[in-house]
Amino acid sequence: MSSDLLLGTFGDLSKVQHQIEATLNNNCVNTNYEKIAKKEEEEPIILEKPDENDGKEDQPVQSLHTFKKGERAKMLADGYTKEKWLLDRFSIIFGTSIMCLWGYHIASRFDVYDVVGIFASIILGMLVADFFSGLVHWGADTWGSVDQAYIGKAFIRPFREHHVDPTAITRHDVFETNGDNLLIVLPVACWFLYNSYTYSNEVLLQTYRFEIFCYVLAIFVILTNQIHKWSHTYYGLPSWVEFLQKYHVILPKQHHRIHHVSPHETYFCITTGWLNYPLEKIGFFRSLEWLIEKVTGVPPRFDDQKWAGKKID
Fold first, then answer.
1. Phi and psi dihedrals of 109, rounded to 5?
2. Which pTM was predicted?
């Protein structure tokens, strides 16, 4: 069996893992992932409640391997607090308004004679967004802990949950899926919007290409988690999303499956996925991991492996 076939066959290590592994063992190429995902969606993970006196709740994080997968998934899902729920709604409602207003001002200055420059700015914005998605994804997957102050539950937790239960993201609403990313770009959007009302049109036209680049970058940063969610959705997607995935304008399902082969150490870019192959080829993230481990003594994916159920000595 060729390496291309193996990469194309590997599925998300999620609730559909046992079906996909069975498919690999039988050398079946034409797996119907839509039927598998649909069947598993109808049969959710059954969470077994630990006995109140079994002492698990008092065990340190190093003992996470003693919990079943469903228990670990529930522990991580329960970390979504009411405060975070409210913040996500504020972020989406206020942030979307600001982005629409900023987009209106950009469109009002559109120059039909600068199509080539505008197109180059759009492509560059998409590339940079893809790189940032990979850098952030790699950082959160590889370093940090759910118990870390301030960022642990709000930022690291969703990444750990995703590796324990990869299809959990498909059950997140639009607020939980996109709230964090919109909050990140909100200060930049407000700054550009402020400039639109304070600078003259002549001054704004001088930096128009750069503003287009920043706007496209912001749009694709905002959409990164939504695109990621679509890459885990096996049925019911709009036809235009499937079209964009098919022609690799955004992250395709099959392409993202490579990342979900344990221990999740490659193909981190999840916006378009364009940069995954070249970054892997030059060993970009492996070099960073080697350097950080040399300086800090902390091995990569230490916390992630514990939540994955691996016994850590």
1. -105, 15
2. 0.71
Question: Which token pair is 247?
Answer: 């022609």
Which amino acid, 240? W
Q: Which residue has the higher pLDDT, 73 or 157?
A: 157
The closest alpha carbon to 131, from 247, 225, 217, 231, belongs to 217
Reported as a single tens digit per residue, the pLDDT across 198-230 is: 999 999 999 999 999 999 999 999 999 999 999
CA distance 71 to 311: 16
Percentages helix, strand, coil for the chain (3-state, rounded to 5) are 70, 0, 30
Buried residues in 4-31 as b, exposed as e (16+ CB within 10 A): eeeeebbbbbbbbbebbeebeeeeeeeb
CA distances to 88, 144, 278 from 175, rounded to whole Å, are: 5, 24, 33
CB–CB of 166/14 below 8 Å? yes
Q: How far apart are the first and last CA of the chain?
A: 36
Q: Which two tokens stand for residue 106?
A: 């950009």
Instruction: Kindly report the length of the chain.
Output: 313
Widest CA span of the chain, in angstroms? 73
Q: Nearest 5°: phi and psi at 3?
A: -65, -35
Q: What are phi and psi of 272, to 5 degrees?
A: -110, -25
Burial of 197 (0-12, 13-18, 19+ CB in 10 A): exposed
H or E stretch covering 231: helix 208-231
CB 80 within 8 A of CB 176: yes
Q: How sure is the predictor about 60, in pLDDT bands with cuts at 50, 70 and 90?
A: very low
Domain positions in the chain are: 67-307
Lowest mean pLDDT among 5-14, 175-184, 191-200: 5-14
- Compute the distance between CA of residue 23 and CA of residue 210 in angstroms, rounded to an integer: 48
